[in-house]
Amino acid sequence: ECYVQNTAREYAKIYAAEAEPLEGFGEVPEIIPIFLVHRPANNIPYATVEEELVGEFVKYSVRDGKEVNFLRRDSEAGQKCCTFQHWVYEKTNGSLLVTDLQGVGMKLTDVGIATLAKGYKGFKGNCSISFIEQFRALHQCNKYCEMLGLKSLRTTHEKQRKATSMKSKNLPNSSTIKKTVPKKAREPRDFISSEH
Prior knowledge:
The chain has 196 residues and is an alpha+beta fold. The protein has helices at residues 2-19, 70-74, 76-91, 130-138, 143-147, 153-170, 183-186; strands at residues 30-31, 34-38, 46-50, 58-59, 96-99, 102-104, 107-109, 112-115. A hairpin with a 7-residue loop joins strand 2 (34-38) and strand 3 (46-50). It is an enzyme of class 2 (transferase).
């Protein structure tokens, strides 16, 4: 949990460094740090500790990307969280996605990370690869994506789908492939009958 959240936090810092200087971008989401505490005298020897977030707790993106959340789509924090996801996706060439973004205002906690099956640069996330595929298919760019110069995923996703369908159309199917049987196999065989 600490490793995932603090890894996502590092991406958020780089995102902030790129986004904050842009005119009109404004405040950037921050993933708060989480710490692992060892308490050897306690029945549960390990615990996580993080800053308390006070206010309305909102899920800006869910792990599987299927939930439609108007607070995510219509709020500034929600749009900037979606842009952050898009930015990470693009920076890692579609290999990693920070997901399950939630928190109070621009302060986020308890995030998840999805990576390709083999991971990304030695890091394996805690969410299914299907979350990356769903994000690619469902993400709708907003003005913050445009401000950062991010490429539309719709166009990329549609091109990939067309390329895949064209490849499958160009591949011969089993009914068009001529089946040839070696001459030797077509000749009658001598069978030796044995009596039992």
